[in-house]
Design a protein that fits this description.
The chain has one domain. It is an all-beta fold and 69 residues long. The chain is elongated, with a radius of gyration of 17 Å. It has strands at residues 2-9, 15-22, 26-32, 36-48, 54-68.
Length: 69
């Protein structure tokens, strides 16, 4: 698992260290439309604060390439 640290302001007096966990990508996905095929990866993301409490989860997609018909 890869990780990256950042800082987030919680209020006017405090700061928390935020860790962003990037889970392994689910590769080799594709979407077929009537004119092309899009090849992409999907990655899940979890963010926790310095108390190890999950504050956000999500996913993003990375388009690798497209084939036109």
């Amino acid at each position: 698992m890869a990780y990256n640290d950042g800082t987030a302001v919680t209020d006017k007096d405090g700061y928390y260290t935020v860790t962003v966990y990037l889970k392994s990508a689910c590769g080799g996905l594709r979407y077929n439309s009537s004119v092309s095929t899009h090849h992409y990866d999907r990655m899940l993301v979890t963010m926790t604060n310095s108390d190890d409490v999950t504050i956000a989860t999500g996913q993003f997609y990375l388009l690798k390439f497209s084939d036109l018909y």
